[in-house]
Amino acid sequence: MKNLDRRTFMQRTGLAGLSVFALSLGVNRAVADPDPPTGSAPAASGPITEADIHRFQLGGDDAFIIHDGALTLPGLQPMFVPEAKPAELQELLKKNFLPFDRYSISLNVLVIKGKDGVIMFDSGAGKAFGPAMGKLANALGRIGVAPGDIKTIFITHGHADHIGGLVNDANEPVFSSAKIIAPKHEVDFWMSENPDLSGMKTPDETKTQTAAGAKKTFSGIKAQLELKEPGRVAPDVELVSAPGHTPGHSMFQVTRNGEKILVMGDAVHVFAAQFPHPEWTMAYDVNPGLAIETRRKLFKQAAADGAFVFGYHMPFPGLGHVRTDGSGYEWVPKPWVI
Q1: pLDDT for 313-325, tens place per residue?
Q2: DSSP secondary structure string, 53-64?
Q3: Do the Cβ atoms of 320 and 309 come closer than 8 Å?
Q4: Which of 158, 198, 244, 333 has the most CB atoms in a 10 Å sphere around its CB?
Q5: How does pLDDT run across 208-237, given as a tens digit for each residue?
Q6: Which has the closest alpha carbon to 264: 255, 273, 254?
Q7: Closest Cα partner for 186 from 228, 232, 247?
Q8: In angstroms, rounded to a whole number, what is the distance separating the alpha carbons of residues 160 and 162?
Q9: Is the pTM for the entire model greater than 0.70?
């Protein structure tokens, strides 16, 4: 694989959303479905296997993490942790038994079945970025959930890998009977005439695509949107402001029968690097300094509380805890079987 200079890499990976970097890399290493249909092209919505669905209990309710797909890059930099010295980054990757020449991040969607209906957090990438993602639609069928069964969808922020699954090719709602709760500041930002993306470390064309994509998707679901300020947004869900990655980026604290889970969205992308170094950022952070501040607060509080945390881009299924480790922190995955 040829090394790419920074601008070429950013141009090739700068599609309309935060994490949509791997799909137009133009390099030989592609993101492939782990179980494509024999002798045929992958389905547009992504073939699904049992390995893409993780089931667990939350307060006595059935909960599921659905693996919407993965993004694979030819290394972390320059998209991620640009502040890291290459030798330091390689040492961290080695410590975590990860390769140096590629990095994959999962797209994990949380779905909870309850007596009051089915709720979901973010929506995956949908069909926007090719067959390597968009598995959510098929996975919902596997767990007995039709689009019309979903009562409420909670949105952490407006990047395409989080909201692309809300609309079809015609930009029409996929979950037409669901109310969609999103941070007011976030939607207002993307719907404004000229959102300020000067803090993003991407080419200008990427900034334009990112803003246009978010605006188009939010316009397509406008009738379903309920814009909320931080605080209680449902009987068992609290919206927690976590700005920086985007201006209105938010987390959600979910409580079911005394059990809690913190949905942290994109506060973290690279577990091996950003937990030990919360001061390391990524190219699509709209306000990198504020993203660092948010990450530090999150890690400190989660470690102190022993919080049960769900990460959209953590290694699937993205469930675990945070603990202190020297001057930094460490991601501790929850075992599948205890």
Answers
A1: 999 999 999 999 9
A2: EEEEEETTEEEE
A3: yes
A4: 158
A5: 999 999 999 999 999 999 999 999 999 999
A6: 254
A7: 247
A8: 5
A9: yes
